[in-house]
Design a protein that fits this description.
With 353 residues, the protein is mainly beta. Helix content is 8%, strand content 39%. Strand 19 and strand 20 form a beta hairpin. The chain binds copper (II) ion (CU) (3 copies).
Length: 353
């Protein structure tokens, strides 16, 4: 055997460890995630019960570097079983961590139980995580999703120009089942609210920019329908699909984001004014038929003067609504208090089975 003694092994180990920073070897990250029953206010007059990662919808941002090792301890505080699937992570030599019950995880995480996922961030890009139990309910209408950003070891020249980052996760809701855990999301059920980062206009938020900003938006299809995201006044350069750099980036003004998909777009903010971005599917522009609603943001340039009649005049601005602040803070897991829901009362949530 190459290393015959424990001593030699220890010396070798410490020598290797001392090289970690030099060689840029895998950093280790360890995170805690709970799954909690809360309610969130999606739109005026519409509150939805959700299974929320760390009590929030969308879930916390996980950001690591390509090649890093990630450990996540998950505790299920809800009344139904869940798993977490790490969408985009290829689970090389770790397929038991893929989070699909009875396929590669023996059992879903039962109410009150915990499970630890360990995997390597084996590829870069805009990835995400979501439950893989009853996905038609838990993912489509219970908010069980959140973003993972894996930074590439070698960012492209385009990426290096980015000055501001935003994450937009589009999804769908079914008001019929808003208050009933364990129901909804079946083919005959109809979605009637549509959101970006868990809220519909006017509860969504603007993106404040200044001329010269280079804005990257990571667009996620977290719900069950395709969102035709259209940005006014600007061209969007599509640079990545599902986290993969495109060999030939292309310009669009509308980008279709279907269930499970991610598109990264980079936009030169060079046209001062106030411009909307919205889903071009007509019924997605309403809150259960009331217009204007749905996944809407407005780009507000610092150089433009806010009109008196501007729809979001006086809004309580949250600069982290699109994770823009969290995305300036390096690696880790980032909770976002404004996404936190209100706890569902214990006695109310007990289900009789
Ligand atoms: Cu679930
Ligand atoms: Cu998935
Ligand atoms: Cu339009």
């Amino acid at each position: 055997m190459l290393y015959g003694t424990a001593t030699l092994r220890n010396v070798t180990t410490s020598l290797l460890l001392s090289l970690v920073p030099v060689l840029g070897w895998a950093a280790q990250h360890e995170f805690e995630m709970s799954i909690d029953e809360v309610t969130i206010d999606v739109a005026p007059g519409f509150t939805n019960k959700v299974f929320a990662f760390n009590g929030q919808v969308p879930g916390p941002l996980i950001r690591v570097k390509e090649g890093d090792d990630v450990t996540v301890h998950v505790t299920n505080n809800t009344g139904l079983p869940h798993t977490i699937h790490w969408h985009g992570i290829n689970q090389i030599n770790s397929w038991h961590m893929d989070g699909v019950a009875a396929i590669n995880q023996k059992d879903a995480i039962r109410p009150g139980e915990s499970f630890t996922y360990k995997f390597n961030a084996d590829r870069p890009g805009s990835l995400w995580y979501h439950c893989h139990v009853n996905v038609w309910e838990h993912v489509a209408i219970r908010g069980m999703w959140g973003p993972i950003v894996v930074d590439p070891k070698e960012p492209s020249d385009l990426e290096k120009k980015v000055t501001k980052d935003a994450i937009l996760m589009m999804s769908t809701w079914q008001s019929t089942y808003a208050a009933s855990f364990g129901k909804g999301g079946l083919p005959q059920d109809v979605s009637d609210y549509f959101s970006v980062n868990g809220k519909s206009f006017p509860y969504s938020q603007p993106i404040r920019v200044k001329k010269g900003d280079v804005l990257r938006m990571r667009l996620y299809g977290a719900g069950d329908e395709t969102h035709q995201m259209h940005m006014h006044g600007h061209d969007m350069l599509v640079t990545h699909k599902d986290g993969y750099a495109l060999p030939a980036p292309y310009y669009v003004d509308t980008v279709p984001v279907g269930p499970g998909e991610r598109y990264d777009v980079i936009v030169e903010m060079k046209n001062p004014g106030y411009f909307i971005m919205h889903d071009h599917v007509d019924r997605h522009m309403s809150n259960n038929g009331a217009s204007l609603g749905g996944p809407v943001t407005i780009f507000e340039y610092a150089e433009a003067t806010m009109d008196d009649w501007y729809v979001w005049k006086g809004i309580n601005y949250d600069p982290n609504y699109f994770y823009s602040d969290s995305l300036t803070k390096g690696y880790g897991l980032f909770n976002s208090p404004p996404f936190m829901g209100k706890p569902v009362a214990q006695e109310k949530r007990r289900r009789k089975e």
